[in-house]
Design brief:
This protein has helices spanning about 25-40, 55-65, 90-105, 115-125, 170-180, 190-195, 200-210, and strands spanning about 45-50, 70-75, 80, 85, 110, 150, 220, 225-230, 235-240. About 35% of the residues lie in helices and about 15% in strands.
């Protein structure tokens, strides 16, 4: 019998078959399931895995139907390298993430993998010049679309038991000092909350709240050598130490 499946609207994932989101009955079933999770189970937000696998327009359809409080997609691919060295300009990488957010009509945020990768190399090699792009803005998605950038330094794929891309050991709190004093929506890794970093992370979260730093706060980068942060209301200024 001839199947009804259409060509995939995204990349293939070797560990699982594609779902054909172009089929109306598939989207109907998914929306009913999401509404059940929202109304009956009590979920109020979605983390969308491997969103490279299907068109972001379908995500908008699902979010419009389920009306979550928050939604974030994982668009994870490789940053740009030349001869094994990370390039300073990562515009193409963050553009792909921004393109996906655009496909959702801005209804979903995305994990700022660009910032994660740049912070990783910056702190591992003390190359702080990487923390400013060619226009003097933060070099990740947070520099282009901060209200939709979900910043992080570690997650269940990169750290924990899988360890595919661990953040440099001993540099975790420097990473959190960055994302918790910048715009975007910072995500703290579960493993770190229940670790020796708990009190330091709590202090940074308190600082963020006390100074009313939010996802649309403005950043002014004064230098990208050794740095500390001064925050006031909606503005963040970075000064040399």
């Amino acid at each position: 019998m001839q199947g009804r499946g259409n060509k995939s609207s995204g990349d293939n994932f070797h560990a699982a078959p594609n779902i054909d989101h172009s089929q109306e009955f598939v989207r109907k079933d998914l929306k009913e399931w999401l509404l059940w999770l929202r109304k009956e189970i009590g979920y109020d937000g979605w983390r969308l895995d491997f969103v490279r696998g299907f068109w972001g327009g379908y995500v908008k359809d699902y979010l419009d139907a389920s009306e979550p409080y928050f939604a974030v997609g994982e668009y994870w691919d490789s940053l740009s390298y030349t001869y094994g060295e990370m390039d300073h300009n990562q515009d193409a990488h963050r553009q792909r993430i921004v393109d996906w957010i655009n496909d959702t009509s801005g209804t979903a945020g995305a994990f700022d993998v660009t910032t994660k990768g740049i912070l990783h190399t910056t702190l591992e090699r003390c190359e702080y010049w990487r923390l400013s792009d060619e226009k003097g803005k933060p070099p990740g998605v947070v520099g282009w679309w901060p209200s939709r950038a979900v910043t992080f330094i570690e997650n269940h794929d990169t750290g924990s038991t899988q360890g595919h891309w661990r953040f440099p050991g001993g540099k975790e709190m420097q990473g959190y000092a960055y994302i918790l004093t910048h715009p975007g929506t910072p995500a703290v890794f579960y493993d770190h909350i229940f670790s020796q970093y708990q009190s330091e992370i709590a202090a940074l979260i308190s600082l963020r709240n006390r100074n009313k730093i939010h996802c649309r706060s403005i950043v002014s980068i004064e230098t990208t050598s050794l740095y500390t942060y001064f925050e006031h209301q909606d503005n963040i200024r970075i000064f040399q130490r």
